[in-house]
Structures are given as structure tokens and as C-alpha cells.
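Data deposition worksheet. Section B asks for the primary sequence of the deposited chain exactly as it was used as input, without tags or linkers unless they were present during the calculation. Section C holds the resulting structure in C-alpha cell form. Section D is free text for depositor observations; keep each observation to a single sentence. Incomplete worksheets are returned to the depositor.
Section A, Depositor: J.P.
Section B:
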Amino acid sequence: MFFFMHRQFLARINNERLSVGLNLTKPFGPDRWDQPVYPGYDPKLGRGSVKRFAPRPAGATLYPGWQKELKADLASVRDGIKQGILEIGTTNVRLGYMNGVDIGISALGDVVESYV
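Section C:
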């Protein structure tokens, strides 16, 4: 369900961007984690949430520690997919396809979504 909803969300955002003359969104994947992000963004959410949702100035980058953590998490998920087993806490979830059903895809979506 996560993958379906994510695609629907991106389709909506891209539609809205195109309707006001903006370019399509670009994925913010591992190849861009160390690059500056343009343009900046100010959610203008007011006093109560400023500490949590502060403006992001143009050219901001992820902290190196966050980049390292994201890369380690990505490697862990990729290894789990290769091995066909995801380790979630102390539980192993088997990934596969049997009788027309993707087994473990919901757990994989939950893991990926938790990092988004």
C-alpha cells in the first residue's frame, strides 16, 4: 500500500508543480544526500512549531552523521532484500513470492516508510 500511495502522492505533487510552471520533482536518493538542496523552503507554520519545522535555507545539506546513518540503513535494507529476509528488531520476516502473493512486501514497505 505504501508504494501505491507514494506514487499517487508524487503524481499529485508533480501535477500541481507543472500547473504553475515548475519542473518535476527530483528523487532525493543516496546520490544526492551530500549535495546542497535548492531552493530553500519555509513552511511558515508559526510560533508553536518553529523549532520542529524551521525554514531550510537554500543550499542546505544533510549533516554528515545523518548521511552515514542513512547509507548504513540503506545497505541493511538492500542486504535483507538480497538474502530474502528482513531483520526487524528481533523478528525475521521472509520475503518472497508464493501462489500469486508477495510475502513480506508490507513489512518491506513499513521499513522503507519509516525512513521517509
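Section D:
The longest helix spans residues 64-83.
The radius of gyration is 18 Å.
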